[in-house]
Design brief:
It is built from 3 helices and 4 strands. It is an alpha+beta fold and about 100 residues long. The chain has one domain: Rossmann fold, CATH 3.40.50. A hairpin with a 7-residue loop joins β1 and β2. The longest helix is centred in the middle third of the chain and has 15 residues. Pathway: Purine metabolism; AMP biosynthesis via salvage pathway; AMP from adenine: step 1/1. It catalyses: AMP + diphosphate = 5-phospho-alpha-D-ribose 1-diphosphate + adenine. Belongs to the purine/pyrimidine phosphoribosyltransferase family.
Length: about 100
């Protein structure tokens, strides 16, 4: 199957008012059901950054880990995982933040 950007966008499902009213959660799990679409998305990301000068890739909890690990592999960069407080047993760097 040949995909275009419309087909790929249709694999990212908006969930209105989740996890709370006023938030639109972008569910990317359907994208992972299509290896071809996932490869196109990841190749597009990699192509965008292959010439960029940076040293690491940072990925936020859950969904970011999925995308970030593939991208770090493709670009041969170290991956830094950003976790919620209390999720790791070792000493960590911490920074405050707010969610939606």
């Amino acid at each position: 199957m040949v995909f275009d950007s419309f087909d790929i966008k249709s694999l990212i499902r908006p969930v209105i008012d989740f996890p709370k009213p006023g938030v639109i959660f972008r569910d990317i799990t359907p994208l992972f059901q299509s290896p071809t679409a996932l490869r196109l998305v990841m190749d597009s990301f990699a192509h965008r950054y292959v010439e960029a000068e940076f040293t690491h890739i940072g990925a936020m909890d859950a969904r970011g880990f999925l995308i970030g690990s593939i991208l770090a592999y493709q670009l041969n960069k170290p991956l830094i995982l950003f976790r919620k407080q209390g999720k790791l047993p070792a000493d960590v760097l911490a920074e405050g933040y707010q969610t939606e």
